[in-house]
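Thread amino acids onto this structure.
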């Protein structure tokens, strides 16, 4: 069995917290899954989670809005480039009309034979809504926001990564991560992420030798990392050992993310990868099941900093 089963989440550094919240919940019709703060460093920065109502793995998008501290990054090559979400077959026109109506420029395109709606998050990060006929997940219907069984986003389809040179990334994805190479053309490389439940998600690699090097820091306007689901701790350590055996010795120690446990590593193409598994309590660790994402919560080790952090965060209306 593969050591990874699908995506766990995708994480971005964005700009304003309010515009970020409105983009994911109002424009894309996703649900707030958790509102907490950045666990690393000392700056008070939100960590906002969006996804399905119950926060299912493979639907989670997370953001660190960096407008308040005023830290901005540069999009470029050797960096993750595009967040791709899955939509039902035939839903692209609905999304083009809906997004343009909301003042978010969107247009149809195609890559690897799939119809896509191209748009950008208000902070500039590229998004694509991809008509994925192989996705059997239930759409994340949000009637209050006007999405339906026929149109609603289903979760993560994947991400694309821009690289100066695809060769080492190709080997890393194939031999290291054991993802299956599904396409190799002038459009780039496409790898299928192994999934125990037969879902279909991908990582795309695009060669870009012209753009400047993208920043790797936590800084607004850039994708920070792609997190893959190892499902459990044994798989996480087994994949760490496998990659270390290839010479990738810079995999981090396991970090406690309260709801899941994570390791991080820099892929040879520059994009940061995370290996994560959800702890048994999951999102219900600090909010009742059925009411997740409704309050601002702090991990136990930040309780003594709660007021200082609240005072430093951008005011938001949820
Ligand atoms: Fe993460």
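Threaded sequence (318 positions):
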């Amino acid at each position: 069995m593969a050591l990874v089963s699908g995506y766990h989440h995708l994480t971005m550094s964005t700009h304003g917290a309010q515009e970020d919240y409105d983009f994911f919940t109002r424009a894309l019709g996703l649900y707030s899954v958790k509102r907490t703060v950045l666990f690393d460093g000392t700056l008070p920065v939100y960590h906002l989670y969006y996804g399905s109502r119950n926060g299912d793995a493979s639907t989670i998008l997370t953001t660190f809005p960096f407008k308040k501290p005023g830290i901005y990054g540069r999009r470029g090559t050797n960096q993750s480039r595009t967040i791709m979400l899955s939509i039902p077959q035939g839903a692209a026109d609905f999304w083009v009309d809906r997004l343009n109506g909301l003042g978010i420029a969107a247009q149809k395109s195609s890559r690897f034979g799939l119809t896509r709606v191209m748009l950008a998050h208000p902070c500039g990060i590229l998004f694509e809504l991809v008509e994925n006929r192989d996705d059997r997940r239930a759409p994340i219907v949000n009637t209050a926001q006007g999405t339906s069984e026929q149109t609603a986003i289903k979760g993560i389809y994947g991400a694309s990564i821009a690289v100066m040179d695809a060769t080492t990334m190709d080997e890393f994805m194939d031999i290291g991560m054991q993802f299956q190479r599904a396409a190799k053309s002038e459009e780039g490389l496409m790898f299928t992420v192994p999934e125990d439940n037969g879902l279909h998600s991908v990582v795309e690699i695009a060669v870009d030798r012209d753009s400047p090097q993208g920043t790797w820091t936590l800084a607004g306007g850039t994708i920070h990392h792609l997190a893959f689901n190892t499902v459990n701790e044994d798989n996480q350590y087994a994949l760490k050992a496998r990659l270390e055996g290839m010479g990738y010795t810079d995999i981090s120690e396991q970090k406690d993310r309260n709801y899941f446990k994570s390791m991080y590593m820099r892929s040879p193409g520059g994009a940061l990868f995370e290996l994560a598994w959800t702890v048994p309590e999951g999102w219900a660790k600090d909010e009742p099941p059925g009411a997740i994402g409704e309050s601002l919560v702090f991990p136990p080790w930040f309780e003594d900093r709660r007021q200082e952090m609240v005072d430093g965060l951008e005011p938001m209306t949820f």
